[in-house]
């Protein structure tokens, strides 16, 4: 047998998904009113994001309806399995993972879905937890020589995150996650985000779709009932990152308590050079090595265009 005959055929990953363009996707929720006001949308979007009411209506209202349908049917299936086993119904929260690069807008997507899903009758209680809270404290990162790799998989307390999700999916009445301050750029001691058996838990973070470090370990995504990857061309993401850095220099960085206050006095050219350096040295390698390769582990991929608008939706086939 020849080498070519012995070689396994390459997997056509695209065949695992239904590809739906923006217009087709928007038509999937006809007549459904947009439950958010323009003011609420402005409050939800991140710096540099151009989210508007049209985008919410055409992309995220249909997505929230799909997610609520998944959650309701998962709960129904759980009840049927419990009845089959002649056990009490022990259905636990429906967990949604949201992954993607720095500056791609995944935090906006997660916040928006929390608000929209809570408006559907079947999922009124929705909590959002970011994996920033599971970063090691700066002192520990310094001890491990990882401050320059903050955001890479090894900078997170993965075991603590897995324990948190284990407790959530075990039906614990109350589960706590550490709290991360973007102003302090560090974990806040004795501060927590508390989750009390909601209908849905959204977990947002860079590496939530990463495979486990060894075959015997659990992956974070093992606890997800549905997962979303927010995708865009890396050149567009770089531009969004630099633009966001410039906006933060004029805003959050001017706070004397901000870890990044030292950047507030940079000139435009200096700020652009600094942001580009951070992107090329930290965020781009992390995207290429650890984040982007997990894209096709997602249930659904939101593909953004250069203007930040979603242009295509990929939904994994059942």
Could you explain the architecture of this structure?
With 318 residues, the protein is of the alpha/beta class. It has one domain (15-128, 200-316): Rossmann fold, CATH 3.40.50. Helix content is 38%, strand content 18%. The chain contains 9 helices and 9 strands. The chain has helices at residues 3-6, 22-26, 38-44, 53-84, 106-117, 138-144, 158-169, 234-250, 268-291; strands at residues 17-21, 94-100, 126-130, 175-181, 186-195, 200-204, 226-231, 300-304, 310-316. The strands form 2 sheets. Strands 1-9-8-7-2-6-3 form a 7-stranded mixed beta sheet. Strands 4-5 form a two-stranded antiparallel sheet. Strand 4 (175-181) and strand 5 (186-195) form a beta hairpin. It is globular and about 65 Å long. It starts with a helix and ends with a strand.
């Amino acid at each position: 047998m020849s080498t070519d005959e012995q070689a396994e055929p390459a997997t056509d990953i695209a065949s695992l998904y239904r590809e739906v363009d923006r217009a087709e996707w928007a038509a999937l929720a006809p007549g459904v009113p947009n439950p958010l006001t323009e003011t609420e949308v402005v409050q939800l979007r991140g710096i540099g994001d151009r989210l508007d009411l049209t985008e919410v209506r055409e992309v995220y209202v249909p997505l929230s309806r799909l997610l609520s349908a998944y959650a309701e049917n998962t709960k129904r299936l759980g009840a049927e399995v419990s009845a089959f086993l002649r056990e009490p119904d022990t259905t636990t929260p429906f967990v949604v993972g949201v992954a993607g690069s720095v500056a791609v807008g995944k935090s906006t997507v997660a916040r928006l879905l929390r608000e929209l899903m809570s408006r559907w009758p079947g999922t009124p209680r929705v909590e959002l937890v970011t994996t920033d809270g599971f970063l090691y404290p700066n002192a520990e990162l310094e001890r491990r020589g990882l401050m320059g790799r903050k955001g890479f998989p090894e900078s997170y307390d993965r075991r603590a995150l897995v324990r948190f999700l284990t407790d959530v999916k075990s039906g614990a009445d109350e589960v706590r996650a550490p709290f991360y301050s973007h102003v302090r750029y560090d974990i806040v001691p004795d501060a927590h985000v508390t989750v009390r058996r909601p209908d849905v838990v959204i977990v947002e973070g860079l590496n939530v779709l990463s495979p486990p470090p060894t075959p015997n370990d659990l992956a974070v995504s093992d606890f997800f009932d549905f997962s979303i990857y927010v995708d865009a061309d890396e050149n567009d993401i770089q531009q969004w990152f630099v633009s966001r850095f410039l906006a933060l220099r004029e805003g959050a960085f001017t706070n004397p308590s901000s870890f990044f206050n030292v950047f507030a006095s940079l000139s435009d050219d200096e700020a652009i050079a600094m942001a580009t350096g951070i992107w090329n040295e930290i965020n781009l390698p992390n995207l290429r090595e650890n984040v982007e390769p997990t894209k096709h582990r997602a249930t659904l991929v939101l593909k953004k265009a250069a203007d930040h608008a979603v242009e295509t939706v990929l939904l994994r086939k059942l």
